[in-house]
Amino acid sequence: MAVKRDYYEVLGVSQDASTEGIKKAFRKLAFQYHPDRNRDGDAAEKFKEVNEAYEVLSDADKRAAYDRFGHGGAEGLFGRGFEGFDFGDYGDIFEGFFNFFSGAGTTTRQAPRRGNDLRYRISVTFEEAALGCEKDVNVTRTEVCATCHGTRSRPGSQPVRCTGCNGTGQVRRVQRSLFGQFVNTAVCGQCHGEGALITEPCQDCKGSGLQKQKRHISVKVPAGIDDGNGIRLTGEGDAGSRGGSPGDLYVVISVARHEFFTREGDSVIFELPVNFAQAALGTEVEVPTLYGESKLKIPAGSQNGKVFKLNNKGIPHLRGGGHGDQLVILRVVTPESLSKEQRQLFEELARSLQKDK
Predict the structure, then answer these.
(1) What is the rounded distance in angstroms from the CA atom of residue 206 to the CA atom of residue 111?
(2) Mean pLDDT, rounded, of the chain
(3) What number of other Cβ atoms are within 10 A of residue 82's Cβ?
């Protein structure tokens, strides 16, 4: 029979590791050995081993029992000395005894639960992303019932204390054995841990305390935001339950393509088409920018692909002051068709350039 490895060794953590450290180690190993991702022959067995270790070490009571008694709890406590002994009617007693040490059936009253986060996507133009804007989002979310204000009871009525647990949300069962008295605590089956019973549920929310509502929310899109960036609106998600805080609303930005601008970081790229004469003789042109037309002087003899920079005409920095630049790339355009006169002029120019060689 194979000897089980130490659970701390399985997860690769020390015996004084925090709950968060154990959870982090488990997530990493579970991702590594999950059978859907890892096809190695022993991956499934390792995945099972990691899950077993986490199930024990993530539970405070089970971990305490494991630290004291090792694998199996009872086996670590009594060794193998009871092999072959007929426990007879003591079975239930020992079951409760072992459950006490392993934490099985031990639960607490239901705690407040945070609401779900919501995610929406909105589209903005290139200029709106660069310069900032406000957009409206229509969301459907869960909110606290406006009629009962989350109490789940019809207005004018009150929940009554649960008689099954006397309002504690828990029931305790005392068991006696030759080893002493043990207490097993469980969630009350009548009130499901609430400690109270709703006798007259709210008609609007059917006793849930929550309702679906459509809301119109204005979202401020900051200047300089890029495609795929998200904006978090704290507390604008689904309402929490049992007094828990609401979730958040995440708005993801989709930036539409521009007719002639592209973006690289905080720089705006613009390709400027010019003809042979403009490139050879030089010229001054009006170039479009996010902030209006801007004059650009093209020196004589400029070559195709030459880059000019218009300072501070680019995207505002999302975090911090200042702007990027606009880069203007020269594209010398070859005419696809020529008039008779133009052809004669180009032929004459070609002969002249040939002589200069």
Answers:
(1) 21
(2) 84
(3) 11
